[in-house]
Design a protein that fits this description.
The complex is a heterodimer of chains A (277) and B (563).
Chain A: H1 2-35, H2 48-51, H3 56-80, H4 90-112, H5 121-143, H6 155-172, H7 177-188, H8 196-201, H9 203-210, H10 217-234, H11 236-270
Chain B: H1 2-28, H2 46-49, H3 58-64, H4 66-73, H5 87-90, H6 129-132, H7 142-145, H8 162-165, H9 211-214, E1 217-222, E2 225-230, H10 291-294, H11 345-349, H12 364-367, H13 402-405, E3 411-412, E4 415-419, H14 433-436, H15 439-443, H16 464-467, E5 491-492, E6 496-500, H17 504-507, H18 521-524, E7 527-528, E8 535-536, H19 551-559
Antiparallel strand pairs in B: 1-2, 3-4, 5-6, 7-8
Chain lengths: 277, 563
Amino acid sequence: MAVANARAFRIVLRIAYLLLAAALTWLLAAGIDYYSLPLDQRPHHPDFRSLRPAGTVGHGLGIVGSLQILLLLLYSLRKRWRRLAGLGHIGRWLDAHIFLGISGPLLVTLHTSFKVQGLVAVSYWSMMAVAVSGVFGRYLYLQLPRNVLGEAMTLEQIQAQLAETDRRLREQHGLDQRLMSALEAVTTAGGSLWRLPLNNLLLGMRLRSQLPAGASSVVLADAKARVLLGRRILFHNRIQELFHYWHVIHKPFAFLMLIIMVVHVGVTVALGYRWVF
Amino acid sequence: MGVLRHASHIAINIVLILGLPALAAAQLSPGKLSRAHEKFEGVRQCTSCHELGDQTVGPKCLACHQEIATRVAAGRGLHAAAGHEQCATCHVEHQGRDFDLVHWPAGPQAFDHATAGWPLEGAHRKLECRTCHRADLLQDLSLVRDRGKNPGRTYLGLGTACLDCHRDEHRGQFERACTDCHGKDAWKPAAGFDHAKTDFKLEGKHREAACDRCHPVSTETVEGVADSWSRYRPVAHDGCADCHQDPHAGSLGNDCARCHDAAGWRRVAGGAFDHDRTRYPLRGRHAALKCDACHRADAPRNSLVYARCDGCHRERHPAAADGRTFDACSRCHTVDRFAPSSFTVARHDSTDFDLAGAHLAVPCSACHAPARKGAPTPLQRPAAACTDCHRDPHAGTSTAEKAETGCRLCHDVASWRTVAYDHARTRFPLAGKHATTACRACHAPPGARAAADSLRFRPTPERCDACHKDPHRGQFAATTAPPVTDCERCHATVAGWRAVRFDHDRDTTFPLAGGHLNVACLACHPREGEGDDLAVRYRPVDKRCEACHTTGFLDTRNQGDRP
């Protein structure tokens, strides 16, 4: 049941990404003539009344994007409010959080009609900082192995899992000491933390050259898991430290963005800009 | 680690809290206001323009822009038109200091002026906006000046009356609207003006006259520029003399219309005009003439010189050489007819050339002939000498005396053929046969045959052989040069050729005696030759006896003729 739900969620998430891509493509294509104009000429464009931030389309984009940003806060609620702990898998919450964290800022970007300048841009760049830091946080998040419940594993747990993987490679897949040493060498050749993403990306290719020809995909997957676990153990402390600092960046900017957004929305509503309502 | 984490949180939150108002304030404005509205910049002044709870800014715009508000309230102008209720629809704010709030989508020239309540028509459409929308044409400068605005930028404040922009070309002469007469396409022609609706309907020639003939143009200098304008009213038009000069100088009264109408001055109503009222009553053939025979279109108007015939008539007699003109036609002609002339022979005799003799029968034109056909007939005495009219038949061979007296030396005016000349006045007095001989016998030129042939008087040789043929074939010619024969030695002119003054005893070396006295001349002087050469031999004659006295001689003498 849980597996089925996870698959359905992934499908829904992919559809959502596709719809988002399609919507953004359509909006950009339709508005490229307007968006590409210098700011002082935009008021004279026929689409000004609709695509400007207060326009019918622009304002709508801002409202939808803002709502998405508000919605993604539920992820924080899910993490912090224990009464919600049982509500769905935390990983899906995060996936939804990431989707909304991507979609919302993009829609808000269209809402601004790329008019981002001066002090008023603080709100926007705060939002973008939160979004970009989210991407970075997502990467760090992935570097911290988790159990099936999505909870972060301790170093000991990871080491135990590594030992289990080594055992499986030796005993089940028949890797000799030389190959195991080669895997260890690949593991330690991950380079610095900043080069790690690229090295992880090229890992499959590297392993194929180390493993005997004709090694099954299962062997390859275990070998890959072993190297990644090894590397995560190597960078575990460092990543954990960065992850803590990431929260320092991600949350305050989110907080700043939210406050300004509330003020922004409050002022516009106060001045009577209520979109279609 | 935990301490550091919390310290970071606290520091960032402090920054946020302290900076929040400023950031929030910055967020309130979507952009800087235009330069015209920069005084409203700032978070505390949002509501200077914006109505809370209502995105419209119009009411507060108009609260300041009273010049627009009053027009909107009056339903006048572009801003009162439908679709222009929201100021921000056209005048977009928060676009930066340099943003121009007045935007013309296709340029001001493409603006549909009708939406401003005053459609551009005619020539107005071709004008640049600022040709009319100028500060100096604003009707109420206070609209902009009192508000510290540039009068040169506004499009408000123009009047819609013609004179609000245009100078009154008529200088207040008319109270009617300009458009009653003038169209908007062009000032001229004044298509709406109809002269027939004035007190003076244009008829006839008046329709062709240039306006300024009746409406004088005045020139004045306005702002240093010379300008002219026409006086249309008042223009006196009660009588013709208000504009026209009376060519009759009042002699025919002041009711021009009795004879003339506007169709043309020269067109005089038939029968209505009594020429006797003029200084030239029509008489004779003049009475039957049509008016335009004298009052021609090409004649100078009002300048007929009726006091002189040549005012109308061509001068038939050219002026005399001394400059005296013949201007008393009536001395010879009447208004009834030109010919025949009343100039009689008796009046001709009063001139310095009496008509007498054959001259009486000569037609006038024989002496007073025009230089060519159709040319004026000269009346002056053609010349002083006969040969000025007559051909000299003697070709100048008359005597020197004739040069002094003229032809009258021999001829008179009665007849050419009657010649009265005393030949004795010459070196060759006529005597004997010469006195009865026709002149032509001696004075006919060689080869002359017809009577008309001229006689030649000089040179006329005086020797006999010049006229007479020497029947002696030169037997008596002088032996010395010149070998002239002196006929008068034997023949007398008066007595005749046959009255010979020859004495054989005296004049020859062979006196006649005895039987020689009874001998016929031819017995000793025989005829010789034949025809025209037949002549009597007088000399030399052989005087020896035997030359004559031979048997044959005797026989011959006895049988010969006796003289």
